[in-house]
């Protein structure tokens, strides 16, 4: 079992992965913006249903919130600055 600082670092790294993955999903499934006076007739992205978009948003919101709570618990479990090295 890893010590608390290692667990905290792992949780922070996992949260960074969650943020990167959520941005990747946004890039993958977002629709291109329309610019006035610019007609783009090239490759069109497939449309995605609103339900699928909501599912992705709900999933990543849940994962990010859960990981943030885990980080808070790990931070609270760390010894305070006032505690002696004997207690730690």
From TrEMBL:
One CC-aspect GO term: mediator complex
Record-linked Gene3D superfamilies: Mediator complex, subunit Med21 (6.10.280.10)
Top-level division of the source organism's lineage: Eukaryota
Span list, region Disordered: 31-55
Low complexity: compositionally biased ranges: 41-52
GO function terms (MF aspect): transcription coregulator activity
Pfam (any one): Med21
GO biological process: regulation of transcription by RNA polymerase II
Alphabetic keyword roster: Activator, Nucleus, Transcription, Transcription regulation
Main location: nucleus
Alphabetical list of SUPFAM superfamilies matching this protein: Mediator hinge subcomplex-like (SSF140718)
Compartmental location: Nucleus
Signal in keyword set: no
Subunit structure: Component of the Mediator complex.
Family: Belongs to the Mediator complex subunit 21 family.
Role: Component of the Mediator complex, a coactivator involved in the regulated transcription of nearly all RNA polymerase II-dependent genes. Mediator functions as a bridge to convey information from gene-specific regulatory proteins to the basal RNA polymerase II transcription machinery. Mediator is recruited to promoters by direct interactions with regulatory proteins and serves as a scaffold for the assembly of a functional preinitiation complex with RNA polymerase II and the general transcription factors.
Protein name, entry field: Mediator of RNA polymerase II transcription subunit 21
